[in-house]
Amino acid sequence: xxxxxxxxxxxxxxxxxxxxxxxxxxxxxxxxxxxxxxxxxxxxxxxxxxxxxxxxxxxxxxxxxxxxxxxxxxxxxxxxxxxxxxxxxxxxxxxxxxxxxxxxxxxxxxxxxxxxxxxxxxxxxxxxxxxxxxxxxxxxxxxxxxxxxxxxxxxxxxxxxxxxxxxxxxxxxxxxxxxxxxxxxxxxxxxxxxxxxxxxxxxxxxxxxxxxxxxxxxxxxxxxxxxxxxxxxxxxxxxxxxxxxxxxxxxxxxxxxxxxxxxxxxxxxxxxxxxxxxxxxxxxxxxxxxxxxxxxxxxxxxx
Length: 303
What we know:
β5, α5 and β6 form a beta-alpha-beta unit. This protein is of the alpha/beta class. α5 packs parallel to α6. A seven-stranded mixed sheet has the order 3-4-5-6-7-8-9, with helices on both faces. It has a two-stranded antiparallel ribbon with strand order 1-2. Helices cover 36% and strands 15% of the residues. The protein contains ten helices and nine strands.
């Protein structure tokens, strides 16, 4: 009999209590300064590093929670055809899509909600970058068209938070067709005399940048967000020149007139409310009722 393991250790464990399981995600490393941040501090700071101010990526649902007043409602979106091209690379696109849907409890890479921002009604669409890099396929196109129609129906501004790698290659030309579709959606909002505000988050690239994301009445970005079409290395290889410091970052684009504002995440909600007050000073009203049904969406493009 080993008296240490059979008698002494059980006595010590009884005296001091059983060992508690410690979660392994209590600390997060900032990808910019590599400092460790306690998870509660990170939550309180809206996932902005307290050491260097780096704005970490957040989920689409979290984005809605920190932007809209309590009581906002998520909008059910029309389903687009899944895997219209029967695409396969190392894995089937249908399998990748199902995996992303299960991991994030979303049908596609955009969430649309309707609610209030400090008492002012708004329709807000937010991209989920973790869902296949926020890529834009038929489902995302349907979501943005639905958001635009709802904004017109409710006479409410449309705000879109972008975070995307661009068009979804697994849908080929169908994904490229979403570029003009989303541009038309922005025209619907503008022709109704409603504000269209785009908040560019890290990263916003490719076909999203080349379509609706640069057509806002106001162009806002979070600090340090990467915004562009092609990658910096591709551009350098094409023009055969060294790119300026900070090229494709929000601050550089603001300095060169492409953006109107760069706003910290903690100030974004108040800033949007103030802008809506400037754009629609007489429209502070009670929360509008959600309609029983939206106008039937146009059928999604199919291969």
